Amino acid sequence: MSARPKIVVLDDYENALRRLADWKPIEAKADISFHTERLRGDTLLAAIRDADAIALVRDRTPFKAELIAKLPNLKCFIFTGQRNQQLDAEAMRAQGVAIGITEAGSSKFSTSEVAWTLILAASKRLEAHLSLVRQGKWRDGKGLPVTLAGGRLGIIGLGSIGQRIADVGKAFQMEVVTWSPHMTPERAAAGGAESVSLEELLATSKVVSLSLVVSDATRKLLTRERLATMREDAILVNTARSALIDMAALPAALDAGRPGIAALDVYDDEPLAKDHPLVGRDDVVLSPHLGFVNEPVFGKFATGVVENLAAWLDGKPLVRPYG
């Protein structure tokens, strides 16, 4: 490469890619710009129009064919982790762009921890009580904290994350039931749970936690009609993907009182807009997609991005090509 290539790093909200890897070898050969805030529309295009390489945290910015066609200089595209539901990889490759990935790292523990943080915050009305103390107050005369022991915990998707959520539920002496498209009674029993129908799980569970991968069979699994079958005191928890819920129907479902509370870590569009209909409600607990955010995972992300960029700058194959 004769001129210095231009590399753009997008959506590093945590400033972790820059902080957790040694960028000196890359900086010696290329001009790099880091962006720690979300960019969209004309602002995004202005930042990446002349980029030779783009590095992206997960799928925080969609790259569809229309946007890719406006990037004539793009030769290398790296995203962290190994799955990207917002990338038109076919359009990238048609334009001759090399696509790289990084090690995924394990977010199983951190995601299950965030799920239980949300469950406890919702059941104990923790946000409201913390706010009272900060204001020099003590009680607000509203709902009492809920005891979870003896209640039913419904796990939708008893994979590695769902199993960890179930194990904590059992430690709290909750009854654990589960459903997924291919669940069997034997597999559920091996995980210390009972296999039930989706209808029974929704109608009887005090806490419903989503831990499924999005597929054609599970997209918008929780429709307006299914949300309406939940208990009035149910806590709906989602640390998986927002596409599992009909998010457009959720505010109305909460208005109708079923479920009683939504505790969410994932959303259709992130970061969540200030005027989103869920923001400011008393019957929601909202966290900023923290499930996969932890130091070991982002350390692998950062190292993987730098390794791929170094190989590309040296004219070598990407260390971890996509697909």
UniProtKB/TrEMBL annotation:
Quote the EC number. Answer: 1.1.1.81
Q: Which residues form a coiled coil?
A: none
Q: Which SUPFAM superfamilies match?
A: Formate/glycerate dehydrogenase catalytic domain-like, NAD(P)-binding Rossmann-fold domains
Gene3D superfamilies named in the record = NAD(P)-binding Rossmann-like Domain (3.40.50.720)
Pinpoint the D-isomer specific 2-hydroxyacid dehydrogenase NAD-binding domain residues: 117-291
Residue stretches making up the D-isomer specific 2-hydroxyacid dehydrogenase catalytic domain: 21-318
InterPro entries with a match to the protein in the record? D-2-hydroxyacid_DH, D-isomer_2_OHA_DH_cat_dom, D-isomer_DH_CS1, D-isomer_DH_NAD-bd, NAD(P)-bd_dom_sf
Q: Which Pfam families does this entry report, sorted A to Z?
A: 2-Hacid_dh, 2-Hacid_dh_C
Q: Name one GO molecular function term.
A: NAD binding
Keywords in alphabetical order, please.
Amino-acid biosynthesis, NAD, Oxidoreductase, Pyruvate
Q: Which GO terms describe its biological process?
A: amino acid biosynthetic process
Q: Which domain of life is it from?
A: Bacteria
Regarding protein family, the annotation reads:
Belongs to the D-isomer specific 2-hydroxyacid dehydrogenase family.
Q: What protein name is recorded for this chain?
A: Hydroxypyruvate reductase
- Specify the species: Usitatibacter rugosus
Q: Coding gene?
A: hpr
